[in-house]
Predict the 3D structure of the following.
Amino acid sequence: MSSTSRFAARVRTQGPMNLSDHLEVNAERAAGDVIDGEAIIINLETGVYYSMQGIGGDVWSMIAAQRSFGSMLDAIVATYDVNADDARRDLEAVLGQLLDEGLVRFAGDARTGVSVPHQELQQEKKPYAAPLLQIYRDMQDLLALDPPAPGMNQIAWDRK
Amino acid sequence: MAGHAVELTVVRELAPLIFAPFAHLDDCDAEPALRIDVTTLDEPLDDLPDSGVVLTHDGLIEHRHRHSIAILDRERGTIRASIHNDGAIASWHRAKPLQVPLSIFFADRGIDLVHGGLVSLRGRGALIAGNSGAGKSTLATACAAAGLDFLGDDCVAVRGTEGYSIFGSSSLVDGQTKNVIFPERTATSTSIRAIVLPRITHDAHVTLRPASAKEALLALAPGSILRRAVPAAEALGRMARMAREVSAFRLEMGPIDEAVARVWELLEA
């Protein structure tokens, strides 16, 4: 079992995540960006793509920055009009989905959580909308009929 | 080609096939950034999927297709291709030859070959985005027939908000067959002022309404990234920036003439 699926299983079966847990983007499998406050994520292996609504853009940005689960929660509670329990429940749910879809993975090495910037705590709180993952499978069907050339994902792009 | 001088050398018997999609590009005397050499492949290759396969070896990238082998040398800026022309080459291959190595060559230079059409009016362009079957080719070729400049129907180059034509050709579905056509009125570059997201509805009238940047990105990015040889994260970031900067519109296509008129009005505004 891969580290991603182990962690997904843990989230599902063992309940709460640890505040010190870190996730990271599964870069070999997923690409994402934030637009209009929502995250757009593409699963490069399956052809499924996603939009993460609500505060999904913030969640994706914090995953990309490898902030700890606790740091993400602190930032959400400090920024949005939501209590800690609801924020934790919603965040755990959407992170579990992202893990299940293989878009993010557990970052195994311990890191120091990025602290919440002071100005974040001073802001007037914004309306909260739970992060929700919308899944689009239409490209999956098209790719099944007309798949891209095998081997395309072996091309190295980090060369200079 | 997308602001780069390209030298294209083709054996005589393949010249009509290979030059036709590039015939609309401007001649220039600049030192080539890319040299393409096309020779004849004696026999077709068997047992390859329709899309071909991509192999990487010795710093080279090779795209092998049933009717062609194309090898890109990224360091030297060369594509050496050999093509077997037995009259059975797929229409997409005839309309857009060397698409895979060209996609990689331009991606290395921050230019994305995106899955979209592009038409232009006096240098103001409309990028037409959507999945296969959305009506990209239908709209782009109808716009060209009505007098707009044609830059592509489903594979065009984009850098920032500048759009470039690579292939001056279209492969249009007509019943069970795909026909390759070459619109007469073409352009090589344009400034992208609108992203149009068509949908064929067969309604009595056409509707055009603003779309969000997110809708534009969802229509453009998955097809461009999943079906092309591109660096996914960087390309998605570039497309997101363009989607933020350029206004997008949903075009529910009823009568095609009316749809073309709405695109024309959009570019005149």
Summary: The first helix of chain A runs from residue 3 to 14. The radius of gyration of chain A is 17 Å. Helices of chain A lie at 3-14, 56-64, 69-79, 84-100, 118-122, 138-145. Residues 1-9, 110-119 of chain A have pLDDT under 50 and may be disordered.
